[in-house]
Specification:
The complex is a heterodimer of chains A (82) and B (396).
Chain A lengths: L11 E5 L6 H10 L7 E6 L4 H12 L2 E8 L2 E7 L2
Parallel strand pairs in A: 1-2
Antiparallel strand pairs in A: 2-4, 3-4
Chain B lengths: L2 H15 L4 H18 L6 H14 L14 H19 L5 E3 L2 H20 L4 H10 L3 H27 L6 E3 L5 H21 L5 H21 L3 H10 L4 H22 L15 H17 L3 H8 L4 H23 L3 E3 L5 E3 L9 H30 L7
Antiparallel strand pairs in B: 1-2, 3-4
Helix pairs in contact in B: 2-9, 2-11, 3-4, 3-14, 4-8, 4-9, 4-13, 5-12, 5-14, 6-7, 6-11, 7-10, 7-12, 8-9, 10-11, 11-15, 13-14
The chains are: A alpha+beta (82), B mainly alpha (396).
Amino acid sequence: MAVNLDEIKPDLTIDCKGLSCPMPLLKTKKAIQQLQSGQILEVLGTDPGSKNDIPGWCERAGHEFLGVKEDQGFMRFYVRKG
Amino acid sequence: MSVFKEKAGSVFRSLCVENWSPLMGGIVIAFFVILLEAWYRPWGIVGGLRNWGDWVFYLLGLYEDQPPHPLWFSSSVLNIGFLWGAFLSATLAREFSFRVPPGIEFVKAIVSGILMGIGSALAMGCNIGGMYMAINNLAANGLLMWIGLVIGVRFAVKYLYWEIEHLPAGGGFEINLSKINPLLALIAIVGLFLATRAYFGSEHDNGAILGGCLILTAGIGYAMHRSRLCIVNALREPFMSGEAAMARAVIVSLLLTTIGIAVLKAAGIRDEMAYVTPTFGLGALLGGIIFGFGMTVAGGCGSGSLWRVAEGQLKLWVVAIFFGLSNSLVRHLFSVYEIIYVNDEGELVSKWLGKSVFMPDYLGYAGTILLVAVFLLIWRILVDWNEETNRLVLEL
């Protein structure tokens, strides 16, 4: 089922802007521990590497990568906890 | 839109915008690395950074001897080409922007840069010159540094876990330059063409040689950025997530370059002792541990830091600066106190760091290639096994 990224209401948002590898992914892993299954994490980031790292990790760790949205000078990544 | 135009667009996207797989990157890099060694010399990173650091301390009046000119010194030209290629890749994909991290990242950058300088001085090379290029130049110190790196990386992952619990940080930002990236890319392409032509056309003895070094390392930098090939990632992820795609790519790249460079050395095209340093001992092992810790906290090794410099990650700018400065200082002290010196036979030796061991002297060329292949095979099986079982993964 396609998710409309503009209508997502995240349960938790973390700020990884300006950070480089591996900190965005580490913070994402840490933050998802605070959520219940089915809740949504929003990650704000600027590292081009996150476009590979976050979806790749979701697949391995059993979470659902909902997509990435460009904002003004950063990206918003959405992950639903598995 | 005509089919031709549509296909031209999709070819451009797959070569210049989308990420290449790590494996594709590893293979393309191996191709350029072998060509560079055939053309003139082995690839390296820290020698060029040290040259720039030497200039800083020379201009400050700390060193007496004037270092070689950065535009006419091959180690430095290798880095210029590498940065240029990575910058071209970043701008073509509109990925060049200044990323300003939170303050704590700058502190980590200074400390890890200094550690990388010290580690690479002890090992007489970073993870490229001391490990990747040492293994494929059939030097035993490369294998020893690999062991050191793995130990250092494992400690650093523990540290990063501690940091994430105790030192939360936010507030970084980006100065977005994606709009002017196509213009920067155009300048980079034209500039690279003109600079290479200037080297080949110059009267200088080494002009053509350095022109080749510039364009070949631009190829390495381009492929490395496009595939985001990262040796820190290859060594770290088995401890952090179990992911092994990057490790597999580095393993293939090492196998190809080992065979290629063995051919060059056995055929007498390159000096057998090229990149065999007197560090098979404490130097490669301890240097590897210190460098491995530093590069993991930095978030980029010798090469990985530089391609991140070229996409505007300011943390890695600080890392590269302190890496070059500290390596320059430590190597300066090593020569003042004769930790490394040239003996009566004209060989570089060290009492403390270790011996120069060119493996084919002991095992022959076939035996050495076999040894490296077995080492790579075991590494590959280990990371694949760990990817399935997560046995080496440290829990957050």
